[in-house]
Amino acid sequence: MSAQLFSQFAKSIRKPEFWAYSSWLDIVTRYRRSRLGLFWLLAPVAMFMLVTGPIYARIFHRDLPSYMVHLGMGYAVWRLMVMVLTDSVTALRSNKSFILDGNTQLTDYTLKSIAKSVFYFVSSMLGMLVVLFWSSAVPPVAILSLFVTVPIVLLNLLWLGYSLSILGARLPDLSHLINTILMVGFLFTPIIWEGSRYPADSLGGQIVRLNPAYHMLEIVREPLFGRMPEASTLLYVLALTVLGWLLALFLCRRYSRYVPIWI
């Protein structure tokens, strides 16, 4: 039964017309009538950086180019995670008719949530590339690290999105809880501020390092500056990945068959 989840993902990946093409079509249709069109995919991250970056760079006495990398990459990855979480938790309930029809895999909706969020993330990265090449703190070769670190984040979002979709089908209030946690989580995640302000051996540092989002951001941002993430971050992400997929396997084996009844 442990192979059931992976076989479902494999079947879903072989049919991208449902989760990839339909997600892109939804995005294109949404912005078709606007004058700026798909530019709106890039606008949120660009506006956040242009408005917030110069202000907080002066508050924190930071060099603007390097701080813009910290801020922009942090917000882009945070936005990716938030979009996957908020979409996944309602994915199965909002596609009730397709699921009851029996022609789709539950993993199709996880991949659809991931695909939609990745389209937005890639669009954000088009603007971030300008910042990355502009900042002297980022060695050009370090940009290639994104091809390793971003897939690690996506690997974790896969199990998290699937698990939340199953739990969200059973617990309708979970979506409200997730939205509340994410609103508060933005303040406790080093997106605007920097986690390095709190040493690992301090109480504040220990609290910060309990936050999974902190480690996800660090594993993406630190290599861009030519630095290795802390050993604790590497171990945290490894443990989170292994335990997370074990949770997803358990939920698939134990509860996936009840989804049509729950929704």
Automatic annotation (TrEMBL):
Bilayer-crossing regions: 38-61, 67-86, 118-135, 141-162, 174-193, 233-252
Q: Which residues form a coiled coil?
A: none
Q: Provide this UniProt record's keywords sorted from A to Z.
A: Membrane, Transmembrane, Transmembrane helix, Transport
**What is the top-level taxon of the source organism?**
Bacteria
Protein family per UniProt: Belongs to the ABC-2 integral membrane protein family.
Q: What is this protein called?
A: ABC transporter permease
Question: What organism, scientifically named, is this protein from?
Answer: Stenotrophomonas mori
Q: Lineage, please?
A: Bacteria, Pseudomonadati, Pseudomonadota, Gammaproteobacteria, Lysobacterales
